[in-house]
Amino acid sequence: MHSPDDNQSALRLHLPDAAATARVGGALAPLLEPGMVVALDGDLGAGKTTLVRALLRARGHCGPVKSPTYALVEIYVISRIYFYHFDFYRFNFPEEFLDAGLGEYFRDDAVCLVEWPQNAAGYMPAADLVLRLRFAQRAREVDIVAGSEEGRECLRALRSGWLPAAG
């Protein structure tokens, strides 16, 4: 289910099904703090929105969670924390991030979950965690990479909570 990483800044998890993807979202949920940016990278259908849905549900959101592909951002307020779920798939140019005025969402009282972050490269704030989902044979894998000290702390907590259960 996992592979260790010598520098403790990355973790790879094997996801045999959608339920495993949801477990990763649920495990990440309590670890995210306001001010964090989580980038979700991967092909269409790789599980980005499934992971975000599970994360928001684990934080206590009971309503629908839909992909923000057309709206660009969906807003969820849970326990006084703003969760902004972005999808930049439809951006043709990274500058569209500025044109849409999305920088104002990246605040100290918010957790920003960003699908297709590469489409806003150079304009979006740096990610604390990068989750790269990909198809692997009949399953999926996710590489979780820390991009800041907050991300490394989150990854350490995820590793200590996930690995014993995965064994």
Can you characterise this structure?
The structure is a single chain. With 167 residues, the chain is an alpha/beta fold. It contains 4 helices and 8 strands; from the N terminus they run ββαβαββαβββα. The chain has helices at residues 18-28, 48-58, 96-99, 149-166; strands at 2-3, 10-15, 37-42, 73-78, 81-87, 110-115, 129-136, 139-146. Strands 1-2-8-7-3-6-5-4 form an 8-stranded mixed sheet. Strand 7 (129-136) and strand 8 form a beta hairpin. The longest helix has 18 residues, at 149-166. The chain is globular. It starts with a strand and ends with a helix. Mean pLDDT is 88; it is low at 1-6 and 163-167.
Report the sheet with the most strands, covering strand number, pairing sense and barrel closure: 8 strands, mixed
The quaternary structure here is: single chain
Summarize the helix and strand pattern as letters.
EEHEHEEHEEEH
**Overall pLDDT level:** 88
How are the strands of the biggest sheet laid out side by side?
Answer: 1-2-8-7-3-6-5-4
Q: What is the CA-atom radius of gyration, in angstroms?
A: 15 Å
Structural class: alpha/beta
Q: Termini separation (Å)? A: 8 Å
Describe what is shown at a glance.
The protein is an alpha/beta fold and 167 residues long. Helix content is 26%, strand content 29%.
List key phrases describing it.
167 residues, alpha/beta, eight-stranded mixed β-sheet
Please give the structural blueprint:
Elements: E1 2-3, E2 10-15, H1 18-28, E3 37-42, H2 48-58, E4 73-78, E5 81-87, H3 96-99, E6 110-115, E7 129-136, E8 139-146, H4 149-166
Parallel strand pairs: 3-6, 3-7, 5-6
Antiparallel strand pairs: 1-2, 2-8, 4-5, 7-8
Helix pairs in contact: 1-2
